[in-house]
């Protein structure tokens, strides 16, 4: 059975636009290469992740990275994801959990949940968001 894995922008940027000698970027590249090499894994992104990756590139060729992203499963973002993300964000505020409202992490977690995707990210807020989603 195929594992669908949502890769967050920070992991993709580290893998595709990483700095030589940067341990975090090398770890992202290693994770990415292992997933690509696994025949049972299909990498997924959302249009928001595509935007974040392309906007965050410093050194890599945007066209080349976009071509790599085109080989990934890109799922549609619908109203139900927006409603659920807003619910999770409000729950965080009600329980005094601090989340950066300018980041899309809540949205990515919700998209993964609704689309039955595993999520991989280097962001420290992901575990906190997933706990809020379970409560």
Number of domains: 1
Strand line-up of the largest beta sheet: 3-2-1-4
- Cα gyration radius (Å): 15 Å
What is the class in the CATH system? Alpha Beta
Q: Report the CATH topology name.
A: Rossmann fold
How would a crystallographer describe the biggest sheet? 4 strands, parallel
What are the low-pLDDT stretches, counting only 5+ consecutive residues below 50?
Answer: none
The dominant shape is globular
Content of β-strand: 5-15%
Number of strands: 4
Average the pLDDT over all residues and give the rounded result. 91
Question: What name goes with the CATH superfamily?
Answer: 5'-nuclease
Helix content: 55-70%
Question: Helix tally?
Answer: 7
Structural class: alpha/beta
Put the structure in a nutshell.
By secondary structure, the chain is of the alpha/beta class. The protein contains seven helices and four strands.
Write up this protein:
By secondary structure, the chain is of the alpha/beta class. The chain has helices spanning 9-16, 23-37, 47-56, 62-70, 79-94, 105-114, 125-134, and strands at 3-7, 41-45, 73-74, 118-120. Helix content is 58%, strand content 11%. Strands 3-2-1-4 form a 4-stranded parallel sheet, with helices on both faces. It starts with a strand and ends with a helix. The protein has a single domain (3-134), classed as Rossmann fold, CATH 3.40.50.1010.
């Amino acid at each position: 059975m195929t594992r669908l894995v949502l890769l967050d922008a920070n992991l993709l940027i580290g893998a595709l636009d990483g700095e030589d000698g940067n341990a975090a970027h090398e770890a992202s590249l290693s994770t990415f290469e292992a997933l690509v090499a696994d025949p049972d894994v299909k990498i997924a992104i959302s249009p928001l992740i595509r935007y974040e990756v392309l906007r965050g590139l410093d050194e890599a060729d945007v066209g080349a990275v976009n071509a790599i992203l085109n080989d990934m499963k890109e799922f549609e973002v619908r109203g139900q994801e927006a409603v659920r993300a807003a619910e999770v964000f409000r729950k965080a505020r009600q329980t005094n959990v601090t989340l950066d409202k300018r980041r899309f992490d809540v949205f990515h977690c919700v998209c993964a949940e609704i689309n039955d995707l595993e999520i991989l990210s280097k962001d420290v807020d992901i575990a906190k968001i997933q706990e809020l989603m379970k409560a």
